[in-house]
Design a protein that fits this description.
By secondary structure, this protein is of the alpha+beta class. Helices cover 43% and strands 26% of the residues. It contains seven helices and eight strands, in the order αββββαβαααβααββ. A hairpin with a 2-residue loop joins strand 7 and strand 8. Helix 3 packs across helix 4 and helix 6 packs across helix 7. The protein starts with 13 loop residues before the first helix and ends with a strand.
């Protein structure tokens, strides 16, 4: 699947889809690739056709906190906002699963907003979804223990990748939750003893 009109989550008219392909560049990225750095100028808006992108924020010491995932049919609302106001990126975006991405130049965004109501609707729907996700993160950090946040993240990945066996390291999980690797390793072992997951070499298996 490598076309926007084949994606259930991308609701747009054929005319809008034609315009997007007309003005955009399509590129393929392997997992681990960085498509946007913090403080970098935003020259284009990524629209994911296939694969998964994770968006996160880093502090001065290099610690990360996961903000949200972008899956097929979605885009990065932070890129929309930054690009429209000619600001540099406040986040980093990295490919979590091999991806096919359409890059729309920021100077075409306003043109599409003026001429295609479904494009504006798409942006508003994205903004609403990301806002809810960010509120959820704030709530988790403020009111949930790390073990609870860890389980929530694992379940989210299970749904996102449609697989109860996750290929991921303790270090990766620690980075995404903004904590130490030793903390994650200890909590994972406790969760395994409780029967909530099974640990393997660089993989974690959750109940189906």
């Amino acid at each position: 699947m490598d076309n926007l009109n084949e994606l259930d989550d991308f609701k747009a008219s054929p005319a809008l889809i034609e315009e997007l392909y007309k003005h955009s560049i399509q590129k393929h990225f392997v997992a681990g690739s960085t498509i946007l750095q913090e403080n970098a100028p935003i020259r284009s808006i990524p629209i994911v056709i296939q694969g998964v992108i994770k968006v996160f924020k880093m502090d001065e010491e290099g610690r990360e906190i996961l903000l949200y995932y972008i899956k097929a049919g979605e885009s990065c609302i932070m890129s929309f906002l930054g690009g429209l106001h000619e600001e540099t990126s406040m986040v980093k975006a990295e490919v979590e699963e091999d991806a096919e991405i359409l890059f729309l130049p920021v100077n075409k965004v306003s043109h599409l907003i003026k001429n295609y109501p479904d494009w504006l609707d798409y942006i508003f729907r994205l903004y609403h979804k990301r806002f809810e996700e960010l509120l959820e993160i704030v709530n988790d950090i403020a009111f949930k223990k790390v073990d609870e946040r860890l389980l929530v993240l694992l379940e989210k990945k299970k749904v996102l990748f449609n697989d109860n066996t996750l290929q991921i390291t303790h270090e990766q999980l620690a980075q995404e939750l903004g904590t130490a690797r030793s903390v994650i390793s200890r909590l994972l072992k406790q969760l395994e003893i409780q029967g909530k997951l099974q640990l393997g070499r660089n993989k974690i298996t959750l109940p189906k």
